[in-house]
Design the sequence.
């Protein structure tokens, strides 16, 4: 059998500083503040350490509005109906836009995708919508298909390996080329028939998959926990090429997927490295790092890129946890601008503005051309702000019906004005969520930690 092309050999660490800086208890606290802490590998966590919990999500940098932009309008593109949200981020490029939605959406139905999050397993990926159906992976690695109009479950299939009895967090689903592609925390990619859930092919990859696959140009692209990107043939699962990033032992719990266009694949790794690769063979086009240059605290040493990169109009936009957000020329990799903003959520691009949720629970609007800050809206950081207990994780945003929607681990969804960041509406969700909303066919969907999917129209 011919050898699979390996496009890159991992660089060795110059020191152990990035690993050694974060001890296991501190990492658990970091993960607890940044996202849900269920066991990635399906193991039941040890009992919590005794003592008072103090939040480590301290503010490291203040995001300030560029006063030159005061009073300038935020122009939005016309709202468009997107018939599908087929992959993480909506499309392979994660391109955003202003999606069609009612000005005052109300709850239309509730559906059940299967097992919700538990002490040992997590819900890490959003559902996808295509061809009148919703496909989602639950916390037990089951994939379910629901009717888009009513939320009724049509089929449900277990994607775990045949002799596997435990659970594993990670992975997610994508729809393309008439197939549902499910990547799992068991280190497999499975192609399913969307009509009935039957398995078309199954392929092992080098390790547990972090997030949902990205499918572009007949290739299924998956990122593993140890920073490997593998490209599989969508037709039969054969490995076409692979790319190895820098190994990193510390990272944030959560799903991330590569971005892809017909001419570039963008791989975001937990090391803070961002690679631009040729889609036909995985060869390196350019390389960038979002690791912090100035380390002002323990969090800045955690360089993970967990927000999805965005490709739009020849530019790649990406944000890292350690406090750097960049715009890069898609073709040659030159950095066009950089700003000191950190986050774990996907930037949303619409017209000439980017909208992003920061590590400090702020929603920020920036100009697309230069990264200048137009406005900043702080959101609640704790359910008990006086004692700073109960940290809140905000996910999103998504722009739909001319409003920005963010969802919270406190069981709330907020609608904000993209013009000035004012909170316009508050919704009570049936369950907390750590996932952003998704939108298709004039409907907004929110998946709760309990496995309940709510549709708003």
Sequence:
């Amino acid at each position: 059998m011919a050898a699979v092309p390996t496009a890159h050999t991992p660089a060795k660490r110059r020191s152990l500083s990035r690993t050694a800086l974060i001890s296991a208890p501190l990492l658990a606290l970091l993960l607890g503040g940044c996202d849900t802490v269920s066991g990635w590998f399906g193991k039941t966590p040890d009992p919590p350490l005794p003592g008072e919990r103090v939040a480590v999500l301290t503010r490291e940098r203040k995001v300030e509005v560029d006063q030159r932009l005061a009073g300038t309008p935020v122009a939005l593109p016309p709202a468009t109906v997107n018939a599908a949200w087929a992959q993480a981020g909506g499309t392979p490029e994660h391109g955003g836009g202003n999606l069609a939605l009612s000005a005052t959406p109300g709850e239309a139905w509730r559906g059940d995708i299967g097992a919700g999050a538990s002490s040992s397993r997590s819900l890490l990926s959003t559902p996808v919508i295509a061809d009148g159906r919703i496909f989602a992976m639950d916390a037990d690695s089951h994939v379910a298909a629901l009717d888009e109009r009513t939320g009724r479950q049509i089929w449900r299939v277990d994607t775990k390996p045949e002799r596997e009895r435990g659970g594993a967090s990670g992975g997610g689903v994508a729809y393309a080329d008439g197939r549902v592609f499910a990547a799992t925390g068991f280190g497999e990619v499975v192609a399913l028939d969307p009509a009935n859930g039957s398995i078309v092919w199954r392929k092992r990859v080098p390790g547990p998959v972090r997030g949902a696959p990205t499918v572009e140009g007949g290739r299924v692209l998956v990122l593993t926990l140890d920073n490997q990107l593998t490209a599989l043939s969508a037709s039969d699962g054969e490995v076409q090429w692979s790319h190895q990033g820098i190994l990193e032992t510390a990272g944030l719990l959560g799903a991330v997927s590569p971005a892809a266009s017909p001419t570039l694949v963008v791989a975001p790794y937990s090391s803070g490295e961002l690679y631009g690769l040729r889609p036909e063979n995985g060869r390196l086009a350019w390389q960038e790092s979002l690791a912090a240059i100035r380390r002002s605290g323990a969090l800045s040493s955690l360089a993970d890129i967990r927000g999805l990169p965005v490709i739009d109009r020849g530019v790649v936009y990406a944000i890292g946890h350690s406090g750097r957000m960049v715009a890069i020329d898609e073709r040659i990799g030159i950095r066009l601008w950089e700003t000191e903003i950190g986050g774990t959520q996907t930037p949303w691009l619409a017209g000439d503005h980017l909208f992003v949720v920061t590590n400090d629970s702020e929603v920020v609007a920036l100009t697309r051309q230069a990264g200048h800050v137009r406005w900043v809206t702080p959101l609640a950081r704790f359910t008990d702000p006086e004692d700073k207990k109960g940290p809140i994780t905000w996910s999103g945003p998504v722009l739909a019906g001319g409003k920005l929607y963010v969802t919270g681990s406190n069981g709330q969804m907020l609608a904000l004005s993209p013009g000035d960041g004012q909170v316009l509406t508050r919704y009570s969700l049936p369950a907390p969520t750590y996932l952003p909303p998704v939108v298709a066919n004039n409907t907004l969907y929110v998946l709760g930690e309990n496995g309940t999917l709510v549709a708003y129209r």
Remarks:
- The chain has two helices and 34 strands.
